[in-house]
Here is the input.
Amino acid sequence: VRRHPALHRLTEEHHHALLQARRLREADERTIKARTQQFLTRWRSEIQPHFREEETALLPCVCPPLQAGAAPVPEVCAYHVRIRRAVMVLQRAHFADDDAARLAAAHDLAELLEEHIRQEERELFEALQEALGDEGMTALGEHLTAWETGASDVLGLPEAGEETDPT
Ligand SMILES: [Fe+2]
Ligand SMILES: [Fe+2]
Here is the structure.
């Protein structure tokens, strides 16, 4: 299924986060310190805001029509918690200037982040496009833009899409 334009920005941010995850995963004793520093900077400026947008704008806006208790929503939330914790563990190792701990934490974090992004792209976004339909996705895109620009007084909530015949 093609990605709806409403999700293009989040998908692009996923590509950037995956790049950061790969740099952590492939780090060695020689590169881990600088890469951890770079990751933590990106975490604060890009990745954490992306998580916040998903938690505070995307998911509340799409549950319903997606069921908050049914896959993939709880898994997405659980990953956010686990990743936030993994970032704290990496931060602690970084402040302690402990390379072995930094490497272990970086590899754990990279793995979680990669799994999570794949899951959002393959399960959450697919489920959204199916549940919302084209009209709902357009409303979602407007909602996310309003959230991003701080225009929260114009936030709209998409309804479930019309049942469409795929043939
Ligand atoms: Fe996420
Ligand atoms: Fe995401």
Observations:
- The helical segments are 8-25, 32-62, 73-95, 99-148.
- The chain has a mean pLDDT of 91.
- The pocket of fe (ii) ion (ligand 2) is lined by residues 10, 14, 50, 54, 120 (CB under 6 Å).
- The chain has four helices and no strands.
